[in-house]
Amino acid sequence: MIFHFKDLEPIDLNKLNSIAKEAGEQILNIYNLQPEDMQVTLKNDQSPLTAADRLSHEVIFKQLTVLTPHIPIISEEGKDIPYETRKNWEYFWCVDPLDGTKEFIKHNGEFTVNIALIYKNAPVLGVIYIPVTRELYYGGENIGSWKETAEGTTTQLHADKTSTDWIAAVSRSHATSEEAALLSQYPIKESITAGSSLKFCLIAEGRAHIYYRHGPTMEWDTAAGQAIATNSGAIMTGPNGEPFLYNKSSLLNSSFLVRVK
């Protein structure tokens, strides 16, 4: 499949998906080590960093530069890029080489590789790869959203807009009282817990109907998931319905709500 968008040179999605998969294999090489060999350190904000984060970043940065040399890259593990440099970018890649590092360290398998293409202030293409299950989700403008299984079967995704009994996707590591209060306003009958960007995927494939995050995230945590969820038929906004924007002066996100229409 080829991704065509406005004046952008066409992007081969098979190649883009392969980049995410190769990064995932690098992550698994570290994941399968003994815990003491994972090389876990703390960043300045006290969030964990592993050798897997760094290896995945290196793969993605190198190969995206070859695939689309004209498109700049923002990565969680890359260098900080001043707002004055990036504020006039029309396109850029927004990458989380290992989303869910805490889940990676806990060894529960609920971590992902996230790659998104941003046009101006919105994600227009996203890829999420789950290394442990080797499942791939991707979606974008004009192509819809899709899931590829480990066996290579591809299925188009559609958010479930018909159910009157909603399932909430909730965070495994970041649940809050504010989240419970907001979700109480919707017809939720049960919830399903998942780590990292998997909650976006649950909505895209119709297994959940709503996901609210109150606590802070970064743009690379949400961009790929937003592209996949919205192109399956869901919507994503700030908690009061305002547009959820990217390439802000600060890459820190506000709260957000993802739900079926």
Please tell me about this protein's structure:
With 261 residues, the protein is an alpha+beta fold. It is built from seven helices and 16 strands. The chain has a seven-stranded mixed sheet with strand order 5-6-7-8-9-10-11, sandwiched between helices. The two termini are 27 Å apart. The mean pLDDT is 94.
Short description:
The protein has helices at 13-31, 51-67, 83-86, 101-106, 177-183, 198-204, 219-230, and strands at 2-3, 11-12, 41-42, 48-49, 73-75, 91-99, 112-119, 122-130, 135-140, 144-148, 154-157, 166-171, 188-194, 210-213, 234-237, 256-260. With 261 residues, the chain is α+β, with helices and mostly antiparallel strands. The strands form five sheets. It has a seven-stranded mixed beta sheet, sandwiched between helices.
What's the helix-strand series?
A: EEHEEHEHEHEEEEEEHEHEHEE
Question: What is the general shape?
Answer: globular
Instruction: Kindly state the number of beta strands.
Output: 16
How far apart are the termini? 27 Å
Instruction: Return the CATH topology of the largest domain.
Output: Fructose-1,6-Bisphosphatase, Chain A, domain 1
Please tell me the total number of domains.
2
Q: Please tell me the overall pLDDT.
A: 94
Q: Give me the secondary-structure category.
A: alpha+beta
Q: Architecture of the largest domain, CATH level 2? A: 2-Layer Sandwich
Biggest sheet, open or closed, and with what strands and sense? 7 strands, mixed
Number of helices, where a helix is a run of at least 4 consecutive DSSP H or I residues: 7
